[in-house]
Amino acid sequence: MKTISITDSKEIENIIRQCPYCMVGITDADGHPYVIPMNFAYEKGIIYLHSGPDGGKLEMTRQHPDVCITFCDGHELVWMHQQVACSYSMKSRSVICRGRVEFVDDMDVKRRILTLLMKHYTDYPCTMGDPAVRNVVVWRVRVKQMTGKSFGLRPSEL
To answer: What are phi and psi of 29, to 5 degrees?
Structure first.
């Protein structure tokens, strides 16, 4: 099985848009990794996340704003030889993004981002009142580095 780098930015962005969630890697107060699944939106090189107004992940991110965000789609078990354990692989594609969290405070900007987040998950128009918008924390991560990989390709698929 072969792993190849994905260099086409449109293909990389397509992988991101197909994912229902992302995994966000944060550094805790003791310098240890902490990874959590989060809902997201993506637009023009920026990943948007949101959370409640309190909690450990906010404290960690305020102390260590650099994050690593991973997206992965397609999870198909494949093999070269069905009886040979080492020939098995998981056919999938992934994107790893690195950036720094900035928190958005402006109500109009937060509302636009939250609308973008909702559009990632539903076609239904959604409304949100000012108290709800004030109570949510919106994260903006400008992607500084983005890499894509495709895993588990058979030689005939290269």
So the answer is: -60, -25
pTM of the model: 0.89
Structural domains in the chain, CATH included, are 2-152 (2.30.110.10)
First to last CA, the chain: 10
Token pair in block for residue 71 = 């997206």
Which CA distances in Å does 9 have to 15, 24, 43, 56, 101? 10, 21, 13, 33, 22
Residue (of 158, 34, 153, 9) closest to 95 by Cα position = 9
DSSP 69: E
Please give the C-alpha separations between residue 19 and each of 3, 40, 70, 71, 74, in angstroms, as whole numbers.
20, 9, 10, 6, 9
- By the 8 A CB rule, do 34 and 64 touch? no
Q: How confident is the model over 5-52, as pLDDT tens digits?
A: 899 999 999 999 999 999 999 999 999 999 999 999 999 999 999 999
